[in-house]
């Protein structure tokens, strides 16, 4: 239901309604939370853990209030719909409707309780902060500290469940139970440990200002990540999303492959910001999937195209779906080094997806003949986003500012550009008022967009502390190396499988945190450089969003496109298949991550040609003819040579790449085969 619809419904009961009062509270709290983040970025008036506590309470309360607003909106819409129904419908649905209303009422009450408890718990921590931070670790904690810590942990579990489903919430609960001394001594093999009491678990989970206050996961999340998500909210209120879609739509009209470019461009940009493949698929897919189907693309392919593009957006610098910030802090390296390391992997993935989309559309005859010239006015309409992005890149890359400071300057620049645009170009007070409203709305939207992440980041903080304190993380890394018998290839395969399994159903930042604690140390022990190991597991955690049986991004896309989930999964795996092989090239060609000259300049184009061969092998089409399995086998062998041939010699890699290009050129000179053949 749209905002205008809900506003219309609420207005029928008058202006001063509970729903309008709730919305006003959301506006005030959202704007305050964003301004609080910007103030902290400017002043650093508090130490980070104290700032984190205040943000945690306000953010969780905001999240619960937004959930309550959705319940109210759904309830009022149902009242309007059922009120206009026949008497027969009202009578026949009376009993189930009453049950549903009772459940909705109970859940609404629990939402209010959750918001109150979040505020009460964090206010208690704030009032006793000095004692908890300085004195309690030495002289001990009070009973009330443990009660408040337990309340905060329960609120975090509930908020995580509401925002991202039962999986992550369940993992947090299991990690806490696993740490307890009732269960720990009875676990088999490497899972066994001595265990902790409830007091120790609550102390590590909350009141010692760790766990839900984890300095790396939650501290970075509520500062570096928060300010960028808030920037994205402000940018969207100024029309960034509309401009990206317009740009993709205009680009689509100039190419034979049509609107598939919308899915690719819009999804990779928005996916980098949102950090959630499912949320990105839902946002951009609601526009792109119907347009793909209108062009003639089959529904399972349309859902697959959008889900793969949305998942890969989390690899795109400079934000990388918020994982870049976490990676920089975990590794203790400059943020700009993570941007550099992620650039070539992102280019490889999106190039392979772009080629795959082109070949799939061309092979199946889903092309369009109604192409037009590119309208450059679309680019001009997005000029107002250039200065903020220039400030962001200059601040991060040249000045080497922290993401928090760079994000502050970027937001200020965006405000200034919006004001100047309204006053100088529009030359109207009305234009200035519009931009002012967009600014205020962006402040609210940025905080609202950030709110669901607060619970999951805190939950991951608890999970990581439980895994580390019980010794399980170290044991898993050792076991990983042992299973591979010290052979790097086997360990890499086990690491790939583990990363995908741990990531199933999870947002990528959460999946990355989990796999990097459990899996990456084993790779590093075998000599893989740190950033390379992190990029390797992150890539597969990202791809878990399109991997069955969960394939959360495909599930969302298939619902939007009314496609069969299993068929959409199959097509998503075909389109995204090169992504499962590209990460191994990072291990072989380390210069793709750690740039060095001339090694990077040589390795990148050779690996790029290898990814083209991979795509051709999987799609079975080279842009002019359908390939039999013999041709596919040749392309596959050459692809492996171009991707991994440097293990033997760079000359082998270069020869394989040359042969791939020669086959493509030779094939495209031949007569095209009919495109009406059945799809393989």
Give a structural overview.
This protein is mostly helical. Among the domains are: 3-215, no CATH class; 596-680, no CATH class. It has helices spanning 3-11, 18-43, 48-83, 87-92, 94-127, 129-139, 143-164, 166-179, 198-207, 215-237, 240-253, 260-274, 277-295, 299-312, 323-331, 335-363, 377-381, 386-398, 403-426, 429-469, 472-483, 488-503, 508-518, 520-525, 530-543, 552-561, 565-576, 578-588, 599-619, 629-644, 650-668. Helix 3 packs across helix 10 (215-237), helix 16 (335-363) packs antiparallel against helix 28 (578-588) and helix 23 crosses helix 25. InterPro entries: DctM, TRAP_DctM-Dct_fused.
Structural features:
single chain, 680 residues, mainly alpha, 31 helices, 77% helix, globular, disordered N terminus, disordered C terminus, DctM
Strand content: under 5%
> How does the overall form come out from the CA principal axes?
globular
Structural class given helices, strands, pairing? mainly alpha
Oligomer: single chain
- Give me the number of helical elements: 31
Largest sheet: none
The overall strand count is 0
Task: Assign a percent range to the helix content.
Answer: over 70%
End-to-end separation in angstroms reads 40 Å
Give the rounded overall mean pLDDT. Answer: 84
Query: Unreliable stretches, pLDDT < 50, 5 or more residues?
Result: 1-13, 77-95, 671-680
Radius of gyration: 26 Å
